[in-house]
Amino acid sequence: MAKIIIANWKSHPATLSEALKLARASDIKTAVIAPPYPYLKKVGTLLKKAALGSQDLEASPSELKSLKVKYVIIGHSDRRRLGDTDAIINKKARRALRAGLKVVLCVGENKATRRKGLSAAKKFVANQLKKDLAGIRNSKLEIRNLAIAYEPIWAISTSKGGKPDTPKAASEMISFIRRTLNSKFKIRNSKLLYGGSVTPKNAKSFLSQPGVDGALVGGASLNPRSFHAIIKAR
Ligand code: PGA
């Protein structure tokens, strides 16, 4: 099955016309394009092959659906830094899932935690999952629509000097997340993605790891050539 590659443009590009140009160049089947909220409507109208994603539950689920949004990223580290607590993230995830949107829940540890080792990072991520997915296990929510993106915070954004995780450690964490979803939440069909400085150079090494179902790509998705190369690597 084709792996999902999500373009998370964050607050780029600077103008609508650049955004439309980028969207036109990135309109590839099975890709997901998540532009900044102000561009959502126009980008959604333009896309013919890629699916539209929103970078947060930035409006009500029905409003987002009316803009043709299919995927919603929730719990990205930028939003957590701006004040989204696990309780807020849990509410947003439940609301979006209830409305039939596909949720991409981001989890991941910071540098200080990772310095203590991968076991400490796993414990941290397990705790995030416990809080962010509270109540989702036994509900009738459409859990097939849930994807988890493992994004170690320290690995995000090469432009700020970040380095990606190693494919081996990322794959180990992703297997751990899969086991945790299965044993603690009875969630079996979720897609698990890696995010954090994915580039054309390293995409294949992440995407070929067992259990990695796709990638959440920030910086490299702003350059259509890089984005295409990442898509090709899956
Ligand atoms: P990056 O961003 O690829 O630029 O590291 C990933 C993300 O923030 O989702």
What does this structure look like?
The model has no long low-confidence stretch (mean pLDDT 94). The protein is α/β, with parallel strands linked by helices and 234 residues long. Helices cover 40% and strands 17% of the residues. Helix 7 packs parallel to helix 8. The protein is built from 10 helices and 8 strands. An 8-stranded parallel β-barrel has the order 1-2-3-4-5-6-7-8, surrounded by 5 helices. The structure holds 2-phosphoglycolic acid. The site of 2-phosphoglycolic acid has 13 residues, from strand 8.
SSE map:
Elements: E1 4-8, H1 16-25, E2 31-34, H2 40-46, E3 51-54, H3 61-66, E4 69-74, H4 77-81, H5 86-98, E5 102-107, H6 111-115, H7 118-132, E6 146-150, H8 167-185, E7 191-195, H9 203-207, E8 214-217, H10 224-232
Helix pairs in contact: 7-8
2-phosphoglycolic acid is lined by residues 8, 151, 156-157, 195-198, 216-220.
Radius of gyration equals 16 Å
Using the alpha-carbon principal axes, give the shape.
globular
Total helical elements: 10
Strand content: 15-25%
The small molecules bound here are: 2-phosphoglycolic acid
Spatial arrangement of strands, main beta sheet: 1-2-3-4-5-6-7-8
- Helix content range: 40-55%
Whole-Å distance between the termini? Answer: 10 Å
The largest pleated sheet is described as: 8 strands, parallel, barrel
Q: How many beta-strand segments?
A: 8
- pLDDT < 50 runs, ≥5 residues: none
Series of H and E elements: EHEHEHEHHEHHEHEHEH
Mean pLDDT: 94
Q: Structural class of the helix and strand makeup?
A: alpha/beta
